Amino acid sequence: MHGDIRRVKRFVRHHRADNWCGQAGSPPACPHGEPDVVWFGEMLPEAVLDATRQAAADCSVLLSVGTSSRVCPAAAAPYLADHSGAAVVSVNPRPTPLDATASFNLHGKAGEVLPARLAAAWPASG
To answer: SS3 breakdown of the chain: % helix, strand, coil, rounded to 5?
Structure first.
């Protein structure tokens, strides 16, 4: 929803490019572009918002991971999913406003909680 830090958005016509100034890998300073992300305070592209709303309305499970659930319009997606009948799973170290709506609240660090839940659901065969 907020872009991809590994992609570059060129200043000319804001089109995407595959790499930074002809170099693959981590983005160095580039005089011709910037990371293809939406920074705090910037508007999300309308097409991205439409796709997010559609995905939230159509999904059967929505994972809300590592967010305060307070910054709209992104914070609205879990509520739309819930309204459409999806299970909503919130993963966050602290309680959020979404906790009252979420089907499941997993409090903890995403890098610890999610691997533990995956391992419990699909244990390695040995």
So the answer is: 30, 25, 45
- Kindly state the tokens that stand for 60: 């059967």
User: What confidence category does residue 20 fall into, taking pLDDT thresholds of 50, 70 and 90?
Assistant: low
- Amino acid at the residue 82: D
Q: Would you please indicate which residues are annotated as catalytic (active-site) residues?
A: 2
- Cα gap 5→38, rounded to integer Å: 10
For the chain, the maximum distance between any two Cα atoms, rounded to a whole number of angstroms, is 54
Report yes or no on 104 lying in a domain: yes
Q: What is the pLDDT of residue 126?
A: 45
Please indicate, yes or no, if residue 113 is contained in any of the structural domains. yes
Number of structural domains in the chain: 2
